[in-house]
Amino acid sequence: MSAAALQFERVTRRFGSKTAVDGLDLHVEPGSILGLVGRNGSGKTTSLALAHGILHADEGAIRVLGLDPRTDGLTLRTRVSLLAEESSLYPWMTVQEILDFGAALHENWDAELATDVCDRLKLERRQRIRHLSRGTRAKVSLALAVSVRPQLLLLDDPTAGLDPLVRREVLQGVLEAVSDEGGAVVYASHLVHDIERVADDVVFLDDGKKRFEASVEHLKGTMRRARAVFENGAPDGFQLDGKVDAQTDGRVLTVVAEDPAQDLDSRLRSLGASEVEVEPLSLEEILIAYLRTQPEAEVAHV
Fold this sequence. Notes:
- This protein has 302 residues and is α/β, with parallel strands linked by helices.
- It has helices at 44-52, 73-77, 95-105, 111-120, 134-146, 164-179, 192-198, 216-222, 264-270, 283-293; strands at 6-15, 18-28, 33-37, 59-64, 80-84, 152-156, 184-189, 201-206, 209-215, 223-229, 243-249, 252-258, 275-280, 300-301.
- A seven-stranded mixed sheet has the order 5-6-7-3-8-9-14, with helices on both faces. A four-stranded antiparallel sheet has the order 11-12-10-13, sandwiched between helices. A three-stranded antiparallel sheet has the order 2-1-4, with helices on one face.
- The longest helix is centred in the middle third of the chain and has 16 residues, at 164-179.
């Protein structure tokens, strides 16, 4: 059995009196994509820095591709790539020169893959970095990150601030270049709709703690929102299997619930509803429903 691409066990990291990551557990299998979601300051960037070995944990254990970042950092740097929102690129170099520079630094550099990624992202290799738009610089950083054929790619909001079309293009390039080789991806972002589009699983961080984790496919396939009308007023204290959140407004009851059997309509009508409308939810709407009702001390596992 192959080692996990990334494993955190009760990992804590502090900066003075501030706890940036607090007892965090993570598990990422090879070939999978984990979305790490949370507000600014929730611990996403610190978690990726710990995974890359830039920072070390104060408590807990970290394994990356079966190795310890504390003692095997040099080995891991050849197998793990980190792509941040503002990756540093030498402005006086051309795109081709910076690719050649990357090739000289990494013995496992794949020149054929670098060419393929540049062509896929429509990069003009004679242009100087200083003349490139922010979106095009993000594409160059992507080419550098994936051309070493990483077994684990860590993405720290690399497309934040870019227009939606460029974000989609860059993300597609990441997925095709890494997943084709069976590599794993951890994608940290506050843009939940981007995570929804690409991730297999999602973890929500809040103040350094894991508040929620689930399979994206399971959530999108089973979670539904229903608006039910009750002629005599919405019932109080009702029981409904799989209920996550419920709000009443006069005769209207709005429920977010798991609906794997697609029988939410009939279950609400059995409670006395005269009209029921059921609709799917976005990942962002599902997360909000869970976090609104989930006690802070607990973690929701779905």
